[in-house]
Write a sequence for this structure.
């Protein structure tokens, strides 16, 4: 028996096929979910994939956050279902207030696509348990609105509770406060990050690294042994 | 049909690189004397029906939950009046 | 308000019409009257004028482009040839690939962001219309001088527009070009390429057949975009309240296009369309007349059914509107409901605007009144054809006589070193990552190679690892010196780039960017370049599948350099065998393949060091290119080479520097016997590449080259953290990297 | 220090994909009765010295050549007065 991982397609989602592929490569049953359906098709975990849902119009993630599927995702996430938001998915999670803070235009005002080094700062979340605490990984990063901001109190709280899950190393590609690349909720089931682990799951393709596969094997182990 | 405007600006404590980029460019273009620039969004809503208190309340709610992200942005809702005296309209050639 | 109906036109033969303002020549207008047997209505005049424009009718270039068909090499690979939206190539395993380059030069000068963005949008719809899923884009670009103030306006806008649109569509940008030259100052070239993949059975064509089939317009609402000129017409036909101002600039909505792509692919999957056409230049005029012209029957369109963004549009303007993100499909009546359902699923507006009729005319109605009644072929396919006069320009001889081989060369090792640094830091040779990092190259998860590799490569089948590679090249400096050779050199370079990455070149697309066809000198350049390209394709065995012509790229009397941009598509059976450019294994041997001669005409060195353009471009030897390609492909397939980089502008030193920086390893080089250091480093002889050969493979590799008759010279070894030329100089990688990477950000950031 | 506001909006005839996307989302969020939405930019400039006619003329020029792209956008320059009566300021929690 394996776990069912759902990947939501919003209008304008781009990396849904990649996330489905990554889930499959990790050994999960990959399930497509549609933004208009509240039904999550009995998946055990959900990935909100990257892209430009609704063209990033208004604010990245702002329109998708109000879709029918998100009603169920929000409800289930609060009840403990694992949810991973990648890039646009992370933006949707902050807009939905499942994760604190907000994403703004990169400080240099350009889209940036690069192979980015990260440190896994929290290897205990549902999506990171296959990494070592402090492990350095390299995965593609590509975004326009990747600058993570939150007020000082929230930032201090995140740090204190170990909820900064990933930090940029070597260079901060977008001006994110405290080099934050990704965060988790207090329960560790909802994780969001800007870089794209689903693009780093096969040798040769993309940057040729497989450092991102751990997200998908982490969740699979958790779900299958649960 | 009446027009309601919602202005959305980043909160003062949030870094505004777009505004900064504009401000930094100004002296190079020969415009001195601008101490600060902030860039935000302006929404012009064409409202069906009267813009009474209840309509304004609804638009206020819309701004708060949707047009602005109040984690980072402030907003102001205004009923558009005819162009004020001080306004200088720009035309393109 | 008087509607200029067909009936009204027939009864008012003497009304004077603004054919001149619409860009028609007197005899063209006369011909329209002759075709119709009466004066055209305003709507008909609008259609003819735009469809007979240079842009849509290829009236100046047609007689030359014919050669691509006439001289086409025998090829089993070509499934659909020139004439459709894009050609289709068989790449095996039941897959077909379609690709095409187009220009959006003029709009990108006026409004760089939107001009470039809608350029990407347009070429993507072309590919989609063939039935293919778009899988990658590329962007060959040319700008004025790197340090010119206007370049600072145009380049960042163009790049942001290409990125803004392409990134939002989820199409990896896998390559392109950035060239600076003051000849492009007022005429930047923004070419865009898209590649799409489909199964053979999914190929769709732009034709309307089957009486009773419905014509469905879907996608964005129609607004007044890009119809500038036609407003004259509207204002003549309508009373004084007339239309409001019409935007000359089209604004793109990539989100809408993404929906259009997904919606269209779902429609294809369910086999719901008989014919399909994207809406690009000339909008509905083009789509309806081309569909009807290529089909078997006639077509009837109720123009008032078109969903409008601007209710004040006149029928002429609706016909002419170039609003983006629209498509037109021919659908059997029984399939219409399902078609509309899929559109609804994707939030795409769709409207049945007409049907295929038994007759042979294209008939268009406006609130029940007929405003168009034309034979569609006369609009779409039988436009005017010009045999424009051409003549070798008087200055050509003097230009060629101004021999670059005679320019002062570096006098000593220090100067040589200095010139190397200057070359790799020059805007044309410098790293373009400030630009390419604004493009998503990873999306879709199939990118095998992307910038700064020799060609872009994507996997098209996850199970079998089948992939395709594409490169684009063009060198206006070479073409200026000799347009025939210049076009062949562009072809050869692009071919070489594809082969260097390990893929077998199959087919060509091109974008021919030239000045005014009314100038006989420009027309000569055009004639020479097309002849060169057609001859070259014949010799290489790679047919031209399609392309695009952009004329009138000039400021006053000064034309841009003739700039044929050539795209070569190749196939690779197993992408795990792809060859990167990176020198990454310490100790591997560096071989130079091909022959190096003293060839500096049009070279990067002559431009960077002497600001010079003169002499003759490198000699073309296509048989040699073919042989080199075969060696590069076999070498890669059989594991004899681990890295390869083609040589082009900048010569050996440029290529070695790029390969070293990419792999993070240094190289120790020696000047081969019979060459001097300067010629070895900077010559731009064609038909060459550098490769990295594992020591264990050296013998096998040199034997293969020897047996096939390809000169292979060992020029060094991958080693250390510097590029060193024995007895001459050493340059630390860090210094080279700084020089190579700082230039573009320094100019633009 | 005085504040001058420059509002930049796409010309009415130019497609506004953002405004359109916002408008289409509103009914789904339960906000009916908004017939049209246009989204533009708002620049808040802090001006050193007096905002007299010559300062305004300069800002007008700045808006025309730099802040707005007059190929596709219109702009309006306004001297900001104290909040009008009709305005409802939004606060975030
Ligand atoms: N505008 C662009 N968009 C995408 N890739 C580009 C662009 N310009 C250059 N590149 C990439 O940068 C690399 C170097 O370009 P170039 O020197 O022109 O290559 P070559 O000389 O091999 O044709 C190539 O991988 C090319 O595809
Ligand atoms: Mg190359």
């Amino acid at each position: 028996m394996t776990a069912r991982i759902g990947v939501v397609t919003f209008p304008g989602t781009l990396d849904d096929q990649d996330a489905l592929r990554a889930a499959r490569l990790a050994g999960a049953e990959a399930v497509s979910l549609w933004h208009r359906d509240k039904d999550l098709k009995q998946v055990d975990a959900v990935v909100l994939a990257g892209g430009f849902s609704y063209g990033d119009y208004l604010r990245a993630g702002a329109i998708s956050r109000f879709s029918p599927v998100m009603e169920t995702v929000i409800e289930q996430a609060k009840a403990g279902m694992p949810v991973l938001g990648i890039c646009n998915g992370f933006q949707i999670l902050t807009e939905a207030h499942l994760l604190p803070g907000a994403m703004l235009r990169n400080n240099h005002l350009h889209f940036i696509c690069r192979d980015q080094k990260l440190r896994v700062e929290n290897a205990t979340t549902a999506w990171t348990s296959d990494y070592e605490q402090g492990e350095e990984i390299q995965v593609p990063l590509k975004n326009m609105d990747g600058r993570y901001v939150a007020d000082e109190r929230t930032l201090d709280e995140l740090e204190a509770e170990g909820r900064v899950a990933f930090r940029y190393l070597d260079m901060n590609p977008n001006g994110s406060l405290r080099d934050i690349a990704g965060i988790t909720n207090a329960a560790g089931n909802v994780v969001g990050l800007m870089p794209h682990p689903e693009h780093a799951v096969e040798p040769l393709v993309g940057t040729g690294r497989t450092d991102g596969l751990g997200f998908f094997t982490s969740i699979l182990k958790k779900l299958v042994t649960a | 049909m009446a027009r309601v405007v919602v202005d959305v600006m980043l909160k003062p404590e949030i870094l505004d690189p777009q505004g900064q980029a504009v401000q930094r460019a100004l002296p190079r273009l020969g415009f001195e004397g601008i101490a600060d620039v902030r860039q935000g969004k302006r929404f012009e809503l064409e409202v069906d029906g009267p813009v009474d208190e209840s309509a304004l309340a609804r638009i206020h709610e819309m701004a708060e939950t949707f047009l602005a992200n109040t984690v980072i942005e402030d907003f102001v809702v205004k009923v558009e009046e005819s162009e004020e005296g001080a306004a200088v309209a720009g035309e393109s050639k | 308000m008087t509607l200029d109906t067909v009936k009204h036109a027939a009864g008012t033969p003497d009304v004077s019409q603004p054919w001149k303002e619409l860009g028609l020549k007197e005899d063209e207008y006369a011909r329209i009257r002759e075709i119709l047997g009466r004066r055209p209505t305003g709507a008909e005049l609008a259609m003819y004028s735009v469809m007979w424009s240079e842009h849509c009718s290829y009236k100046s270039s047609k007689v030359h482009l014919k050669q691509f068909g006439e001289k086409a090499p025998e090829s089993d690979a070509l499934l659909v040839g020139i004439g459709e939206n894009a050609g289709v190539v068989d790449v095996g395993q039941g897959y077909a690939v379609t690709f095409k380059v187009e220009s959006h030069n003029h709009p990108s000068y006026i409004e760089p962001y939107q001009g470039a963005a809608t350029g990407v949008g347009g070429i993507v719809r072309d590919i989609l219309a063939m039935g293919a899923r778009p899988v990658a884009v590329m962007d060959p670009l040319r700008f004025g001088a790197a340090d010119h103030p206007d370049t600072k306006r145009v380049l960042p806008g163009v790049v942001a527009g290409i990125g803004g649109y392409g990134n939002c569509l989820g199409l990896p940008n896998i390559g392109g070009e950035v060239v600076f030259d003051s000849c492009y100052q007022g005429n930047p070239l923004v070419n865009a390429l898209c590649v799409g993949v489909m199964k053979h059975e999914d190929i769709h064509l732009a034709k309307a057949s089957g009486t009773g089939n419905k014509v469905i317009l879907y996608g964005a609402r129609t607004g007044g975009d890009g119809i500038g000129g036609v407003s004259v017409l509207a204002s003549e036909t309508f009373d004084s309240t007339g239309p409001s101002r019409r935007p000359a600039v089209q604004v793109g909505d990539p989100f809408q296009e993404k929906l259009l792509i997904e919606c269209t692919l779902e429609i294809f999957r369910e086999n719901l369309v008989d014919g399909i056409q994207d809406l690009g230049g000339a909008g509905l005029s083009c789509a309806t007349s081309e569909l009807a012209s290529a089909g078997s029957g006639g077509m009837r369109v109720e123009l008032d059914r078109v969903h409008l963004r601007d209710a004040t549009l006149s029928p002429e303007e609706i016909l002419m509107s170039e609003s983006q993100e629209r498509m037109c499909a021919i659908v059997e009546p029984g399939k219409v409901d399902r078609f509309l359902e899929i559109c609804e699923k994707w939030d795409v507006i769709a409207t049945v605007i007409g049907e295929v009729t038994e007759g042979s005319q294209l008939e268009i109605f406006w609130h029940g009144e007929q405003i168009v009644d034309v034979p569609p072929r006369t609009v779409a396919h039988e436009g005017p054809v010009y045999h424009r006069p051409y003549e070798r320009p008087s200055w050509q001889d003097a230009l060629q006589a101004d021999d670059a081989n005679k320019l002062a060369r570096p006098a000593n090792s220090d100067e040589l070193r200095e010139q190397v640094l200057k070359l790799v830091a020059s805007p044309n040779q410098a790293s373009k990552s400030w630009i390419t990092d604004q493009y998503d190259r990873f999306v879709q998860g199939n990118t095998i190679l992307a910038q700064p590799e020799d060609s872009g490569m994507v996997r098209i089948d996850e199970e079998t690892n089948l992939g395709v590679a594409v490169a684009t090249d063009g060198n206006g400096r070479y073409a200026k010196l000799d347009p025939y050779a210049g076009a062949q050199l562009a072809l050869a370079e692009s071919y070489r780039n594809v082969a260097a990455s390990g893929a077998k070149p199959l087919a060509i697309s091109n974008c021919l960017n030239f000045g005014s066809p009314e100038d006989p000198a420009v027309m000569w350049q055009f004639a020479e370049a097309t002849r060169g390209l057609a001859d070259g394709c014949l010799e290489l065995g790679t047919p031209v599948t399609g392309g695009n012509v952009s004329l009138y790229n000039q400021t006053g009397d000064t034309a841009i350099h003739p700039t044929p941009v050539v795209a070569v598509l190749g196939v690779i059976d197993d992408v795990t065998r792809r060859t990167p450019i990176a020198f990454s294994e310490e100790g591997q041997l560096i071989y130079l393949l091909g022959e190096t001669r003293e060839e500096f005409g049009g070279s990067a060195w002559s431009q960077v060091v002497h600001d010079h353009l003169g002499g003759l471009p490198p000699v073309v030897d296509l048989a040699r290119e073919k042989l080199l390609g075969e060696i590069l492909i076999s070498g890669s397939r059989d594991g004899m080479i681990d890295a390869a980089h083609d040589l082009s502008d900048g010569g050996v030193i440029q290529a070695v520097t790029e390969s070293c920086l990419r792999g993070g390893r240094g190289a120790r080089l020696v000047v081969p016997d019979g060459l001097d250091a300067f010629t070895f480093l900077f010559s731009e002889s064609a038909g060459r590449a550098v490769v990295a050969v594992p020591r264990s493979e050296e013998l096998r590799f040199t034997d293969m080259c020897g047996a096939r008759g390809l000169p292979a010279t060992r020029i060094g070894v991958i080693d250390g953290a510097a590029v060193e030329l024995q007895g001459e100089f050493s340059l630390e990688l860090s210094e080279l990297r700084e020089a190579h990477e700082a230039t573009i950000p320094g100019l633009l950031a």
User: Anything to note?
Assistant: Residues 149-169 of chain C form the longest helix (21 residues). Chain C has a mean pLDDT of 94. The two ends of chain C are 54 Å apart (CA to CA).
